[in-house]
């Protein structure tokens, strides 16, 4: 564990809105992840959906990486050490209440990976499906408010999109919940986005294209 003084992260909103958002933080349990060296390239910049905000992460070299869907230590990797995996593409979602939110990552073939279907033919896999307070025994702990999808092989070219669904409040009064979505391509975080959802909302947060 590094000194608390080093764990400095400030998240600012740049575009798609004007609000400043705090980082969502929990503590990682493990360390050491490596990104497979597979050539994959982002086309242009990811497109932030209406209602979402771009988070400019002011990370700090040497900071402690938190399980918050942000690259806290400026190494380009999202949440390394949190127990979920990365690859040529990684999409990580974290949220700030005990609600159960679900991520749906749709590939260029319109195949969707989520908790309902954890593996896709294109090589996508959801290895972390947080359920907030709905299933503390199953997914409780530091990553109960995190979902993670990664590709273990080179992902197909074309457009991808990330949707979020606010499924349940889990017998809490969670109410409106802000989620952070980060996308990493080739081991480099290419964008972080916040979106606030109300119960039963399902929204697209970001789209990105690979070649
Ligand atoms: Ca990192
Ligand atoms: Ca992090």
Outline:
This protein is mainly β.
* Broad structural category: mainly beta
Strand count, sense and barrel status of the largest sheet are:
7 strands, antiparallel
Along the chain, the helix and strand elements come as EEEEEEEHEEEEE
Quote the average pLDDT: 86
Question: What count of structural domains?
Answer: 1
How many strand elements?
A: 12
* Number of helices, counting only DSSP H or I runs of 4 residues or more: 1
Unreliable parts:
1-11
First-residue to last-residue Cα separation: 39 Å
Strand percentage lies at 35-45%
Spatial strand sequence of the major β-sheet:
1-3-11-10-4-8-7
Rg, Å, rounded: 16 Å
Query: Overall 3D geometry?
Result: globular
Query: Helical percent range?
Result: under 10%
Bound molecules: calcium ion
Overview of the molecule:
There is one protein chain. This protein is mainly beta and about 210 residues long. The protein has one domain (about 5-30, about 45-210). The chain contains 1 helix and 12 strands. The protein has a 7-stranded antiparallel sheet, with no helix packed on it. β5 (about 100-105) and β6 (about 110-115) form a beta hairpin. The chain is globular, with a radius of gyration of 16 Å. The structure holds calcium ion (2 copies).
Features:
211 residues; mainly beta; five-stranded antiparallel sheet; 12 strands; globular; binds calcium ion
Compile the SSE list and pairings.
Blueprint: E1 10-13, E2 42-48, E3 53-58, E4 89-95, E5 100-106, E6 112-113, E7 124-129, H1 136-139, E8 146-151, E9 158-168, E10 177-185, E11 188-197, E12 202-210
